[in-house]
């Protein structure tokens, strides 16, 4: 059914996500910046990625690290200047690489002048945000923020409540108001005119709110947030946005769409979005209560068990669940297209979560790479994952920078009446800060990230895990990614082939296998997703190996080594 007739450059591309604050600091203020990225473009070019997505670099007070924008048309001081940004775009384009900007339009910062004018009733922007009158004692409805705590804050200036689905410093814009929409489209066109190659649309499924903002259904330990997502006017807004902005340019559109299923995703595709970011495969490593509920482990265990044991408990995954999530989206979108990521600035480190970052860091990081780059989906690599960077220890609550983690830790400590140390292993396995520790460039001070004081702690393991070391070592995770990216680029079957899911099954619960087929060509991807050997009783495991994470001399016929990955040639 799938053929290459639907070829698109963005299906064949690999995207590399940069979290600029933590990538490279060129001026010693401890915060990564645009010049830092410019200085490292060759590193990315050598790796072989085609598109760079940078998280927000707009002027911001950084309550949510740039996802709270104060001025959409100005570069944040710490990140540099518009001239630096222009240079970044030009340098990327010189190397045939493209640039995606983050588009954060569900909310702004409360320091944005629109909000300032909105809270001051004479400002002429009364309903640019979502305000409700009422007693300061009682919020307008029972909504809670996606970061925890109430989704409403009472503003003393206007003497009214405003809605924020995220932090209180991120008030939600009122998309019902056409003036708001026009102002957003105008801003988008400003960036499109500057020559960007697309947007990654932050929390875009949240922009249309249900009429009347009804209470959400709740139960014990349960709260129905579906109300926040894919509201009744979402596709009308998206189509209007398309017509006013991106449809007039040749760009790539990624929608971050919490709450969407594949059917809903198809509607975004009809609106002109190329791919949506989905989350189901990320949820498979959380316990029953979701990301921030440690109840399934229990406070006593958290306080007393060893680190190895806790890391394993806090990242248990049933491989069948991972496959169900991948398959659901792959089959669900039919002839449309997905993107796939194993790490991002909102997740913990891929090797710590899906692999074994202690005993088999190198092997398991390569297995995760093989998984990511062999699916029918545009791969998104997150900075540092190509080095096998790991989660970090967060010894003190004062070291936490992430607004989500800070709020959740406070609640957990209060609800369970425990000291921070009890929660610390949970922070190591949940906080978004794990992905935001500085990029480890070399074994010099601060991992070569900055000459100043880094804004967030550097992971202690940088003397062993860093880019300089990886570039020098032909067997490194970096070079594995580089070779596999090159292999994928030359392989239509890996990009466009149909997928058939083969393993896990009852006999092999920890072995993944999927087949990709296109025009008579066929490959089988086999991943031994465990720290133990496994002998397969199949006729295919001996097929010629096109790609693998163990050297030919280390391979052992039908026995897969710990975290061994093989791409087998199964063409007739
Ligand atoms: C998205 C971003 C995340 C941010 C949130 C609010 O989920 O990826 O980092 O905190 O939106 O803007």
Could you explain how this protein is built, in words?
This protein is an alpha/beta fold. It contains 19 helices and 22 strands. The strands form 6 sheets. Strands 13-12-9-5-2-1-15-14 form an 8-stranded parallel β-sheet. It binds alpha-D-glucopyranose (GLC). Alpha-D-glucopyranose binds at residues 64, 67, 104, 166, 202-203, 256, 345-346.
Strand count, sense and closure of the main sheet? 8 strands, parallel
SS element count, helices: 19
User: Globular, elongated, flat, extended or rod-shaped: what is the shape?
Assistant: globular
Query: Over the alpha carbons, how many angstroms does the gyration radius reach?
Result: 24 Å
Strand order of the largest sheet: 13-12-9-5-2-1-15-14
Structural class: alpha/beta
Nearest-integer average pLDDT: 96
- In quaternary terms, these chains amount to single chain
State the separation between the terminal residues, measured CA to CA. Answer: 19 Å
In helices, the fraction of residues equals 25-40%
What are the distinct ligands in this entry?
A: alpha-D-glucopyranose
């Amino acid at each position: 059914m799938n053929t290459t007739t639907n070829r698109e450059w963005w299906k064949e591309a690999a995207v590399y996500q940069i979290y600029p604050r933590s990538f490279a600091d060129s001026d010693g203020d401890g915060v990564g910046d645009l010049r830092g990225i410019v200085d490292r473009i060759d590193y990315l070019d050598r790796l072989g990625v085609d598109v760079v997505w940078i998280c927000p670099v707009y002027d911001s007070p950084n309550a949510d690290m740039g996802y709270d924008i104060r001025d959409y048309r100005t570069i944040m001081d710490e990140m540099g200047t518009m001239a630096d940004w222009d240079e970044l775009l030009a340098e990327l384009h010189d190397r045939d690489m493209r640039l995606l900007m983050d588009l954060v339009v569900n909310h702004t910062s409360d320091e944005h002048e629109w909000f300032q004018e909105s809270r001051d009733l004479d400002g002429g922007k009364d309903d640019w945000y979502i305000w409700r009158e009422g007693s300061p004692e009682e919020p307008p409805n029972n909504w809670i923020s996606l970061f925890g705590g109430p989704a409403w804050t009472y503003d003393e200036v206007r003497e009214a409540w405003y809605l924020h689905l995220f932090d209180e410093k991120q008030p939600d814009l009122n998309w019902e108001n056409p003036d708001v929409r026009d102002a957003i489209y105008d801003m988008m066109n400003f960036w499109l005119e500057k020559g960007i190659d697309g947007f990654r649309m932050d929390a875009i499924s949240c922009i249309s709110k249900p009429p009347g903002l009804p209470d959400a259904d709740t139960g014990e330990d349960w709260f129905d947030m579906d109300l926040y997502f894919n509201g009744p006017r979402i596709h009308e807004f998206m189509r209007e946005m398309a017509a006013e902005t991106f449809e007039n340019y040749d760009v790539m559109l990624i929608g971050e769409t919490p709450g969407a299923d594949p059917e809903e995703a198809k509607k975004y595709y009809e609106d002109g979005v190329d791919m949506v970011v989905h989350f189901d495969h990320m949820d498979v490593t959380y316990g029953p209560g979701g990301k921030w509920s440690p109840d399934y482990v229990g406070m006593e265990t958290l306080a007393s068990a060893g680190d190895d044991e806790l890391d394993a408990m806090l990242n248990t995954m049933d491989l069948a669940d991972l496959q169900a999530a991948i398959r659901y989206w792959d089959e669900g979108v039919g002839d449309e297209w997905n993107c796939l990521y194993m790490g991002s600035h909102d997740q913990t480190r891929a090797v710590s979560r899906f692999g074994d970052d202690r005993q088999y860091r190198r092997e398991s990081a390569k297995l995760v790479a093989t998984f990511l780059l062999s699916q029918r989906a545009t791969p998104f690599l997150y900075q540092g994952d190509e080095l096998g960077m790991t989660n970090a220890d967060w010894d003190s609550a004062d070291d936490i920078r992430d607004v989500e983690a800070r709020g959740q830790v406070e609640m957990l400590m209060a609800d369970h009446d425990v000291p921070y140390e009890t929660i610390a292993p949970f922070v190591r396995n949940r906080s978004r800060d794990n992905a935001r520790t500085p990029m480890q460039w070399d074994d010099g001070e601060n991992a070569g990230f900055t000459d100043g004081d880094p804004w967030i702690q550097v992971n202690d393991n940088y003397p062993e895990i860093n880019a300089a070391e990886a570039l020098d070592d032909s067997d490194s995770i970096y070079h594995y990614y580089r070779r596999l990216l090159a292999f994928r680029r030359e392989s239509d079957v890996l990009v466009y082939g149909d997928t058939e899911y083969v393993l896990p099954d009852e006999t092999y619960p920890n072995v993944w296998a999927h087949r990709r087929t296109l025009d008579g060509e066929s490959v089988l991807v086999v991943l031994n997703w465990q720290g133990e050997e496994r002998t397969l009783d199949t006729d295919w495991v001996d097929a010629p190996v096109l790609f693998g994470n163990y050297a030919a001399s280390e391979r052992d016929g039908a026995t897969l080594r710990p975290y061994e990955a093989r791409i087998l040639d199964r063409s007739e």
